Amino acid sequence: MALETERKFLVKGDFKQYAYAHEEIVQGYLSSVTERTVRIRIKGDKAYITIKGAGDESGMSRYEWEKEIPGEEARELMKLCEPGIIDKVRYYIENGDRKFEVDEFHGENEGLIMAEIELADKEEEFDRPDWLGTEVTGDSRYYNSSLVKYPYREWKNE
Amino acid sequence: MALETERKFLVKGDFKQYAYAHEEIVQGYLSSVTERTVRIRIKGDKAYITIKGAGDESGMSRYEWEKEIPGEEARELMKLCEPGIIDKVRYYIENGDRKFEVDEFHGENEGLIMAEIELADKEEEFDRPDWLGTEVTGDSRYYNSSLVKYPYREWKNE
After folding, report:
1. Are B154 and B111 in contact (CB under 8 A)?
2. Cβ(B22)–Cβ(B92) below 8 Å
3. Which terminus of chain B is more exposed, N or C, with fewer CB under 10 A?
4. Does the beta-carbon distance from A82 to B36 stay under 8 Å?
5. Rounded Cα distance, B6 and B60, in Å
6. Which of A 49-78 lie inside 8 A of B, CB atoms?
7. Strand partners of residue A4
8. Which residues contact B86 (CB under 8 A, 6 or more apart)?
């Protein structure tokens, strides 16, 4: 089980021209409780079960456990998931020694685009491209496990 | 993912003399919601992650998905589980072509002893030994995932 340090940002400009690859991601949650999320994800032609613990105070670090599983099993397990399956396309963009993963959401979260960068620790510096918007690290509304229950489309009515 | 058919009974007499083996089981739940339980189990020197769907109307059959995982990872994942870890000793008893698994609970569920038999289907007949008590198949209070939240010791006050 690894401790992952990630920072998350909204995206405000055109980023697709910088992407070197992209793939579709479909994921559901067997538990969307923040203290113990259990996610089933189909990404391209691979599938995974991922368990995450609660974030620390900064919201940057969470324990994560992940195993690859056969796609057929993932599709069966997806049927057991909570209502509200997440459907998005992930773009990969190089950024110095690091890379951004930019998720463009569809379905109930259409309109939401978020970039994530994985860092060695909370203090690590990194270049901020023009298209990078407001930081939303630690804001639980932007967790995918929250978007299942309160999708982005419903926010506009607030 | 297999469909398992199980029947569950309380135990009313001495069963231990018939057991050919026993082992300790410690388990916790990442989700104890009946429609999608996610269980981390350490059984003897092995460990598993198990996902079960909702039971059918009879309560006899539930979808089940299980993978063996390293004990070290199970111990880490156990820390993320909901409060209320289940601690029990499982006894194995032969019964014709089938076998009973009899769970003697400890901790918050001390006093509860339950026997389970796995069958090919709901119609299959089987011998009922003297020590077998009332059938509780489908009674969700007796699900281990329920015993986490409402342990047996608290029932006595009802």
Report:
1. no
2. yes
3. C
4. yes
5. 5
6. 49, 51, 53, 63, 65, 67, 69, 73, 76-77
7. A62
8. B25, B26, B27, B28, B105, B107, B109, B144, B147, B148
CA dist B11 and B91 (Å) reads 12
According to the model, what pLDDT value does residue B61 have?
73
- Contact by Cβ (8 Å): B136, B142: yes
Facing B81 at nearest CB: one of A1, A36, A65 = A36
pTM for the full predicted model: 0.85
Task: Give me the residue from A51, A73, A80 closest to B80, CB to CB.
Answer: A51
User: Do residues A100 and A93 make contact, with C-beta atoms less than 8 angstroms apart?
Assistant: yes
Cβ-defined contact of B80 to A67 (cutoff 8 Å): no
8 Å CB contact of B80 and A63? yes
Using CA atoms in the order A64, A70, A76, A78, what is the torsion angle rounded to 10 degrees? 30
Nearest to B80 by CA among A82, A43, A3, A48: A3
Give the count of Cβ contacts less than 8 A between chain A and B: 53
Q: How far apart are CA B48 and CA B70, in angstroms?
A: 8
Q: Is A29 a catalytic residue?
A: yes
Query: Per residue of chain A (158 residues), what is the pLDDT tens digit?
Result: 566 688 999 999 899 999 999 999 999 999 999 899 999 999 999 999 999 998 776 666 778 999 999 999 999 999 999 999 999 999 999 998 899 999 999 999 999 999 999 998 888 899 999 999 999 998 989 999 999 999 999 997 55
pLDDT value at residue A36: 95
Q: Which residues contact A87 (CB under 8 A, 6 or more apart)?
A: A24, A25, A26, A105, A106, A107
Contact A89, A24 (CB under 8 A): yes
Angle in degrees, CA A71, A77, A82, rounded to 5: 135
The position carrying tokens 């929250």 is A146
